[in-house]
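Priority: medium. Attachment 1 of 2:
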């Protein structure tokens, strides 16, 4: 029974080590992505919508709306929209998207870190073995008994 328990525990230990190894690799890959981000990034959301300009003879009155882009930024609970000039739009869209990805990876790191700590604790639990002084005492007692009997 004792040997069977030892084999199961060994399997558990190697499974935890593998989980930890995989999680560490994923963590390193995420950190690598963050390091590779060259910047600059733009905080906020890039939003586009159709508008009417108000000119009476414009095509927008027949449903061909003008494309407008704004950068929506939340600062201390206040949301402000900044108009984005047409030539700046691709760059602003790209930089805000990369900002969003950076934040997502940061959130993934937080989750993964918690997962790693949980696995470390589980690994520790599988590695820990109780100290059983009674077995040692028995052995040393039998040794003592043997040496006693040897003297006699
Ligand atoms: Zn118009």
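Attachment 2 of 2:
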């Amino acid at each position: 029974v004792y040997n069977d328990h030892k084999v199961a525990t060994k399997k558990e230990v190697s499974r935890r080590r593998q989980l930890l190894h995989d999680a560490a690799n994923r963590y390193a890959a995420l950190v690598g992505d963050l390091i590779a981000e060259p910047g600059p990034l733009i905080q906020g959301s890039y939003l586009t919508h159709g508008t009417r300009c108000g000119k009476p003879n414009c095509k927008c009155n027949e449903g061909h709306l003008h494309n407008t882009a704004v950068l929506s930024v939340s600062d201390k609970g206040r949301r402000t929209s900044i108009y984005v000039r047409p030539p700046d739009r691709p760059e602003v869209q790209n930089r805000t998207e990369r900002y969003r990805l950076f934040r997502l990876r940061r959130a993934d790191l937080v989750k993964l870190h918690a997962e790693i700590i949980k696995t470390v604790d589980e690994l520790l639990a599988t590695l820990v073995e109780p100290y059983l002084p009674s077995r040692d005492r028995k052995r040393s007692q039998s040794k003592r008994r043997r040496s006693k009997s040897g003297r006699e």
